[in-house]
Amino acid sequence: MADNTILIKNAVILDPNTDYDEKKDLLINNDLISEISDNISDENVDKVIDATGKILLPGFINTHTHLSMTLFRGLADDLALDEWLNDNIWPMEANLNGNYCYIGALLGAVELIKSGTTTFSDMYFYMEDVAKAVEESGIRAVLSYGMIDFGDEEKRKAEIEKNMALFKNCHDAADGRIKVFFGPHSPYTASEELLREVRKLADENDMKIHIHVSETQKEINDVSSEKGLRPFEYLDSIGFLGPDVLCAHCVWLNDNEIDIIKKNDVKISHNPCSNMKLASGIAPVSKLLENDICVSIGTDGASSNNNLDLIEELKTASLLQKVSTLDPKVLTSDEAIAIGTINGAKALGLEDEIGSIEVGKKADLILIDTNNANMIPDSSNLSSNIIYSANGSNVDTTICNGQILMENKKLTTLDEQEIYDKARKAIEELKALL
Ligand SMILES: CSC[C@H]1O[C@@H](n2cnc3c(O)ncnc32)[C@H](O)[C@@H]1O
Ligand SMILES: [Zn+2]
């Protein structure tokens, strides 16, 4: 097949790894960035994008979400996690099927692409249907089937089989855009046997693990009374932790647990909006960063956020650390850009492929339009302009794996209106089933 080339001209580049002090041209060859230099000829190039007045960044990486939960946005607000999950979300999820999850995932993919996210890491049900939405939308994803056994042996076997089937069917699918992880839900819903089995199978199959840990004080109390140890102490005691484990939330951590996270090189997904909305608490992110722990960013599901805008999430992360430490110098806009890009790639073990703008890496790129009221004056501090002033609606162009998914704010792979209509219908049906 002939090569497909896209040339981005006159780009002001904001990258977490490299300081580009002048405008550059960037050439995409198929799925990869093939050249970044001062003046690349547009001869024999399939498509030219003029990036004048725009900022070029790596696509953002959302390391913890439940994409199909877009269907439950706004349906159970202003509650703490326990009541939100047990009395509201789980009863609604009992009526889900593959088609609903597919529609919810398409709706989520529209929102992600429009707000500049090119990779998301998901844990949910009917993941083959979520994979179908990933395939069609052109976005990149790490998918985990969310396993809950509550100590029931039969359920445990069935849950593991479902996650392994997802791995066999979907790992490396969609031109390599899909990876599959294990997704044991949490230390309070997954039994010790399930966690030990997951660890063993992850080692045998070279799979990574995605789990919720230490989200609320209730979790700390429940795990401590059942196991005599705090969640990270317990997970360490059963040999579950490692550099391949991505833990969402990590709000309630004592110093010993921070040492455990560091010793095991565990990766963190920080979810500030969800933690604030469910009143779970404030994760000690600046302390984790001081300890050189890899902190990435996630939105959690759209039902506890209530949107999937990572620029907003990064601003919230930064402001929350400043106000909770009473130190305006912590979590700077430069650090926020790194958390939303290269740290996300590291958290998913994909740092050789995505997370920065480098020759040889995948062309997962976004352009942010500066010709908007909230972006003027054009700051010489690009990261400040993006993190503190912008939001997802300033994203103009989104490219993933060398494919343009949105150009001039218009989606190319998905029919927005058709998805909105189908999502509205699905939500009405689900509400009627309650
Ligand atoms: C078993 S699939 C994932 C499962 O997790 C639920 N969920 C969504 N947000 C949270 C959260 O913040 N903490 C714990 N669990 C959460 C989701 O509704 C699914 O049931
Ligand atoms: Zn979650």
From TrEMBL:
Its cofactor is Zn(2+). Residues 55-404 form the Amidohydrolase-related domain. Keywords: Hydrolase, Metal-binding, Zinc. Pathway: Amino-acid biosynthesis; S-adenosyl-L-methionine biosynthesis. Binds 1 zinc ion per subunit. GO terms for biological process: S-adenosylmethionine biosynthetic process. Its EC number is 3.5.4.41, 3.5.4.31, 3.5.4.4, 3.5.4.28. One of its GO terms (molecular function) is adenosine deaminase activity. It holds the Pfam family Amidohydro_1. SAH is a product of SAM methyltransferases and is known to be a feedback inhibitor of these enzymes. As a result of this inhibition, organisms have evolved efficient enzymes to metabolize SAH via different pathways. The pathway found in methanogens differs from the canonical pathway, it uses the deamination of S-adenosyl-L-homocysteine to form S-inosyl-L-homocysteine for the regeneration of SAM from S-adenosyl-L-homocysteine. 5'-deoxyadenosine is a radical SAM enzyme reaction product which strongly inhibits radical SAM enzymes. NCBIfam families: PRK06038.1. This is 5'-deoxyadenosine deaminase. It comes from Methanobrevibacter millerae.
